[in-house]
Amino acid sequence: MKFWDYKNLDKDKIGNISQIAGVRRYEFAEGKAKGVEALEIHTGAGLEFTVLPGRAMDIAWTEYRGIPLNYMAKSGVVAPEYYEAEGMGWLNNFFAGTLTTCGLLNVGGFENVTHSVIGERTYGLHGRITNAAAEQVSVYEEWENGEYVMKVSGLVSEGCLHCEHLTLRREITTKLGSKEFTLKDTITNRAAAEQDVMLLYHINMGYPLLDADSKLYSKSLNIEPQSDEAAAEMDIVDSYREPLLGIAERCYAHDFATDENGVVKLAFVNEKLELGVALEYKKEQLPFFNHWKMMNKKEYVVGLEPGNCLPRGYAKSKQDGMLDTIPPYESKCYEVTYKILDGAEEIAAYKKEIEKLG
């Protein structure tokens, strides 16, 4: 079946734009997801994705022409009130999805940190931000210069008396007929002292996009395995296998080449399906990248994780001089674009773009 061409849209043939594209707003009604607000976005070009204001404007499901692209963890979507900060409790709320945001105070294992005023304080696994609900949630849909623009945004706050006061304003934008969306985060330090900030985008690929036919295409200047198991498989860093019961995760830190504008480009492709997802972002904003391979049965997922840090925890990142800082009352912006590659021609063309990276 030939896909409908949005460029030939005849406005006289539709009663309401929601017939072909738009944002649907709803709230989960039962189970541990009850009360979580969701925004379901349809571009009219086969791309559909669900943003969760009830979970920091993170993204749960993404589909393209009915094909699921992401992994969903065993918990499914869980409301913030079930969050457990101690130990590995974060995993009980980790739905994974297309995007789980890690940070803003810690990315990596839980640890105790000593604060000059309040004393010992626990920084939980991968931070608290994904378990915070957004406020100032906004949905915008309008024609602009002949294009129908869809934009959702929200503000997530992380603050503690005597300690940090950070806000993350997230804006996700797409258009009618688009096969991509762009996520823009603005993190503001609203406190009177400089603040360390850790941010990692846990972007997850799942079956059927992830399979033994899948491959990661990128231009790495250097790859650093994060364990002995990972080091033993350096020859298959960019390929995947069938799931095995009990296999340990493999993680790799990549240092990517960029184009002339400082943009990193990589693609996760299933050759058999002739379908892929490309990620693009500025290395200046997100200089680090963690490649998480989890090939376990029922935990069959690949995380493509650009960040301003690696998931090594606050203390080690501080010690190694890897922490981003924001001066008082100032902001920093971070952007990631998520693109669909549909068909052998688009995939081949994008591979050539990657090969040209410096």
Topology readout:
Blueprint: E1 22-27, E2 37-42, E3 47-52, E4 58-64, E5 67-68, E6 71-72, E7 96-97, E8 99-104, E9 111-115, E10 119-123, E11 135-144, E12 147-159, E13 165-175, E14 180-189, E15 195-205, E16 214-217, E17 220-225, H1 228-231, E18 250-256, E19 263-270, E20 275-282, E21 288-296, E22 299-307, H2 314-319, E23 324-326, E24 331-342, H3 344-355
Antiparallel strand pairs: 1-2, 2-3, 3-4, 4-5, 6-7, 8-15, 9-10, 11-12, 12-13, 13-14, 14-24, 15-22, 15-23, 16-19, 17-18, 18-21, 19-20, 20-24, 21-22
How is this structure best summarized?
Helix content is 6%, strand content 47%.
Explain this structure to me?
The two termini are 39 Å apart. The longest helix is centred in the C-terminal third of the chain and has 12 residues. This protein has an 8-stranded antiparallel β-sheet with strand order 11-12-13-14-24-20-19-16. The model has no long low-confidence stretch (mean pLDDT 96). It is mainly beta and 358 residues long. The radius of gyration is 20 Å and the shape is globular.
Q: What radius of gyration results from the CA coordinates?
A: 20 Å
N- to C-terminal distance:
39 Å
Structural class: mainly beta
Q: Which descriptor suits the 3D outline?
A: globular
Number of strands: 24
Q: What top-tier CATH class fits best? A: Mainly Beta
Share in helix: under 10%
Q: What is the residue-averaged pLDDT?
A: 96
Number of domains: 1
Largest sheet: 8 strands, antiparallel
Q: Detail the poorly predicted runs.
A: none
CATH fold assignment: Beta-galactosidase, Chain A, domain 5
